Amino acid sequence: MKINRVAPWLASALLATTSLAATPAFAADAPAPTTSGAENPDKDIVVTAQRRRENVQNVNIAVTALSGDALVDKKITRAIDLQTAAPGLTISRSGVTDSFNIRGIGLASGSPQVTNGVATYIDGVFQPPIVSNGQFYDMAGAEVLRGPQGTLSGANSTGGAIYLTTQRPKLGETSGYISGNYGNYNNVGVNGAINLPFGEKLAVRASGLFNQHDAWFKDVGPANNQPERLAEIDGRIQALYKSGGFQANVKVEATQRKTGGFALQPINTSTTTNPYVTGRTNTPFTVSFDTPVSNFERSFATVLELKYEFAGGLTLRSLTAYQNKRLAAVSDTDATSLTTRAALAGGNNVRERVYSQEINIISPDTGKFKYVIGGYAQRNKVDLRNWNSSAGNFTTLPHPNTSKLLLGAFGQATYQLTDKLSVDAGLRYSRFEVTGSNAVYSAAPGSTMAMIIGDPPVGATILAPQTGHESDGRATGKIALNYKPDADNLIYAFVARGYKNGGINPPTGTFAPETVMDYEAGWKSTLFNRHLRTQIGAFYMKYNNFQMDVTNPVSGQNGVVNLANSEIKGFEASFQAKINALSIDGGLSYVDSSLSGFTLINKWLVPAASNGFPQCNGSNSARCFDYTGTSVTTSGGSNLYSPKWTWNLAASYRIELPEGVSITPRVGYAYIGSQWAYPTYQTGTDLINARGLWQGSITLDKGTWKGEIYGTNLANKFYVAGQSGRNELYGAPREYGVRVTKKF
Q1: Residue 469 resides in a domain
Q2: Is residue 167 situated within a structural domain?
Q3: How buried is 256 (Cβ within 10 angstroms: 0-12 exposed, 13-18 middle, 19+ buried)?
């Protein structure tokens, strides 16, 4: 029987279990994929973002924590899927990078000069935004921290932070797993890990992944592309050595991802400024290109963590990392195959190298006074070799080089005033410096690919220099009061400040840092003999110097400016409940944001054919544009990528059978409200509509064997998942299949 004939039966079966199903949030209790919270409801959910293992119910942070098992059960296979389980988090597609935002703060710009305000870490190491959507496997867990994390996570955590943790080697244990899946779109995948001990002090864990699927979209144009096709390989090896109070963990990982390019279509706007709109297919999961498209990503990372714990419990920690990420993408710029117009194409060639070092002094976990002291240094080198072409002839060539340095010193302490009352205080000072070089070029007539990727491009002339320098620094931190009337309740209130660095804005200057002040209160409770856990919080935030890339008429390129200030307020609530075999969890977020008015050049008033042209300034050149009359003044609106409502609900029911066999149906629903993608607030062009997505599974568990039938986007909803320039990108279609896992 062909797998596509199973779809109607699968969808019906999964939807029929709505009242029974889903993944319990108690699966976040243990950071090991071999432990399921559904079978261990009394285990505490542990988080490590504050450099020590802590019960999430005792931490004064709004956080969603998920174990490795919970990530699998909730079908969170990539970072972009976290928004289906963490209220207040939205991740919007924008092409080679994704825009992460929490409570309306994060990244609303496609410029490489703007830093993401939601910092993402893998095994404690900060991740640049490119090459960041690899598939999860052999994971220990994920933590989504909401609100500014300006002390321990540091600068560039104005919206929050995401901590992803892989499984580490285990001493004295031979173990592992192998998991394989097959689904529609010829989705074939396998991943696994093996843990090997070498004596009592050394263990090695090797893990790997292979995954591929056919194109999600059909290209009906002459280029015959395979949009969103995937071929992905990842390999990871870690070694842990532990002797007495000393331990060292080294990790080396390499990733390669190839896709058939991004599925784009012109945003459905006026044909006056964008005549390519007439080339839209207006058919779900169908595009029409006349240019070959592709996307190729590679990354290499190595991480060394050293720890020494003294007899009294004081710990010294060092975390050293190097990352080298590269991507090469080609897109159909006008996203159509209109025969009346020349084929337009654009290429993005990016290399980013990141060197980072963190040092910590961590106090013992006992006593009235606990603290973490540390220092941090990070160097980023970003090289772009981008190009645009028309009818096969190269035109503009943006070739900026950027060097960034971030330094920080921080400390956070907790003092137990009484048995029930404690105070937290944290302070960090960050210093940032960026230097830009190179230029945007105009390609020489008849240039070849070999000519345009040179430095400088052969025969090219300079349109606009990309030189510049900017430095800034800010003090950030947090002060909190924590009241525990008993072991099952925590009431807290705090004030926190976050900061995201400024940058250069070639060729006209610099832009200032963003800052945010957060006033927050919350209550975490464990009720009914640990059958129910709740987390409730409210916040009020003042967000200043919102960074946005807008058209710079001097160069015709996008430049970053500080558009406005914002006021953000709202509340969040989540719960995890388990009654015998039934587990239910959910989360809700309400965010009311108000961005003040501002003036900018409205990209929708600039003809698409003139996109990227510099100001004419009286010149009659065919490659310039007069921007007079294209600026608009808005009265403001909501923060970008900030839906008012996001919520999720999931349930599961474990049915016990003889001989240690169980069947667990699960179902989940996630809702992400409508959000603005561009600050002219035009409903027809700038609004990304709300969406609600169903997913579910039926799992057969027999000890070390597990079989599963799964489905995501069960209603096969066709929806816009983000924007890039004048084009829109889409979410994944319905996927379903089977997965078999063997643990040993």
Answers
A1: no
A2: yes
A3: middle
Give 212's strand partners. Answer: 188, 231
Q: Residue length, the chain?
A: 744
Taking only the tens place, the pLDDT of each residue in 346-363 is: 999 999 999 999 999 999
Q: Closest Cα partner for 645 from 583, 684, 692?
A: 692
Q: What is the CA radius of gyration of the chain?
A: 26
What's the CATH number where 194 sits? 2.40.170.20
Whole-number Cα distances in Å, 477 to 126, 154, 447, 490, 567? 19, 9, 52, 21, 20
72: DSSP letter: H
pTM for this predicted structure: 0.91
The residue ranges of the chain whose pLDDT is under 50 are 1-41
**Domain presence at residue 40:** yes
φ, ψ for residue 56, nearest 5 deg? -60, -25
Q: Choose among 223, 228, 260, 229: nearest CA to 336.
A: 223
- Name the residue among 382, 508, 514 with its Cα closest to residue 435: 382
The one-letter code for the residue type at 30 is A
Could you tell me the residue range of the domain that residue 560 belongs to? 3-390+427-457+474-743
Contacts of 383 (CB under 8 A, 6+ apart): 350, 351, 352, 401, 402
For the chain, the domain total comes to 1
Evaluate whether 51 touches 360 at the Cβ level (below 8 Å).
yes
| Structural domain includes residue 696 | yes
DSSP string, 288-334: --SS--EEEEEEEEEEEEEEEE-TTS-EEEEEEEEEEEEEEEEEETT
Beta strands per DSSP E along 596-689? 598-601, 631-634, 645-653, 655-657, 661-672, 675-676, 687-688
